[in-house]
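The authors assume throughout that readers already know how a fold can be written as discrete tokens. For illustration, here is how one protein appears when written out as sequence plus structure tokens.
>
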Amino acid sequence: MTQNRRQEIGQSFLEYAVMFVLIAVIIVALLLIAGDEIRVFVRDLLQTWFPPSP
């Protein structure tokens, strides 16, 4: 029973690691595809919220 529980813990850790890697790959792909648009959007949003002082 102890070995079975240890195997389940290891399996769940592996599942979390695989999910983390997949999410990281998706985020990197989105940044590569839309990186410039995101950068411009964030810059415009920040300039709207915090306009440059004269």
Q: What stands out?
A: The chain has one helix and no strands. The mean pLDDT is 83. Residues 9 and 15 are 10 Å apart (CA to CA). Residues 2-49 form the longest helix (48 residues).
